[in-house]
Amino acid sequence: MTNGTIINPLINLNDGSVMPRIGLGVWKLGSGAETVNAVRWALEAGYRLIDTARIYENEAEVGEGIRASGIPREEISVTTKLWNDDQGYEPALAAVDASLERLGLDYVDLYLIHWPSALFRKDNPDSPALRRETWRAMEEIQQSGRAKAIGVSNYAINHLQEMDTYARIPPAVNQIELHPFWFRRDLMEFCQERGIVVESYSPLARARMLADPRITAIAEKVGKTPAQVLLRWNLQHGNVVIPKSAHKERIEENARIFEFTLQDEDMRVLDALDEGKSVLSV
């Protein structure tokens, strides 16, 4: 891959905006040069989507990496997220302003509610009323131009159904953990039927299953790496992927997933790997 080659096809969101099909996730990259370099390398490799969050404590470094890349801001899609203890109408409005200040940006392309429950709060953390007030703020954030699109993360079907009772603007994206070992088909298809784009985090299952012989056999057949096979599986299910890496060569490798296709039989093998559990808890 040559530097500066844009490798990202786009997917349409239900609000008329678009987002790239692959991005760089920076969870657990931490603050400092590691995040700055990863962002810069990703943009040089052709990525145009960077995903961060307030709780990652590296929004400032993401902004620095974007500026260091020399790529025009309007060509880059930036996502950040509202953390649990910032839920509620006024706190959410303040939180997005604080994130924009740390990022050094006038707007983000996508702003997400990180979790449906306001964990770590003493005042009824799993409150539909709190979610309603938070979403009211999210709609205002979009209408004010501080975010081009708004969405949710880690929302289950019941949370999305609940939104029908209060959302004037539906979520454009639901970012969830999704990979062959936790293939949440019901949730994925529910979102897709409603025009909500599924964005997969931990799409490589935190690299814990890359040596699985069922994956390596497919990788050998198609002449790609196991990581590329897992990312391609998610793409062919119609999703966006945001693999995390701090290594330049892995960042570039992860991007080379648009030049091959998995056969139906390979997809069925990968679909059948589902163990119904998160890799974050093991």
How many DSSP E strands?
10
Beta fraction of the residues?
Answer: 5-15%
The assigned CATH architecture is Alpha-Beta Barrel
- Please state the CA-atom Rg, rounded to the nearest Å: 18 Å
What's the tally of helices?
A: 10
Structural class designation: alpha/beta
Overall pLDDT level: 93
- In the residues, how many domains can be counted? 1
How far the N terminus sits from the C terminus, by CA atoms, comes to: 35 Å
CATH overall fold name: TIM Barrel
pLDDT under 50 segments (min length 5)?
A: none
The top-level CATH class is Alpha Beta
Molecular shape = globular
User: Helix and strand succession?
Assistant: EEEHEHEHEHEHEHEHHEHH
Helix content: 25-40%
Structural write-up:
The protein has 282 residues and is α/β, with parallel strands linked by helices. The protein has one domain (11-207, 239-244): NADP-dependent oxidoreductase domain (TIM Barrel). The chain has helices at residues 33-45, 59-69, 89-103, 128-143, 157-163, 185-193, 213-222, 226-236, 248-255, 264-271; strands at residues 10-12, 18-20, 24-25, 49-51, 77-82, 108-113, 147-153, 173-177, 197-201, 240-241. Strands 3-4-5-6-7-8-9-10 form an 8-stranded parallel β-sheet. The protein has a two-stranded antiparallel sheet with strand order 1-2. Strand 1 (10-12) and strand 2 (18-20) form a beta hairpin. Helix 1 (33-45) packs parallel to helix 9 (248-255), helix 3 crosses helix 4 (128-143) and helix 7 packs across helix 8 (226-236). The mean pLDDT is 93.
Write the layout of secondary structure elements.
Elements: E1 10-12, E2 18-20, E3 24-25, H1 33-45, E4 49-51, H2 59-69, E5 77-82, H3 89-103, E6 108-113, H4 128-143, E7 147-153, H5 157-163, E8 173-177, H6 185-193, E9 197-201, H7 213-222, H8 226-236, E10 240-241, H9 248-255, H10 264-271
Parallel strand pairs: 3-4, 4-5, 5-6, 6-7, 7-8, 8-9, 9-10
Antiparallel strand pairs: 1-2
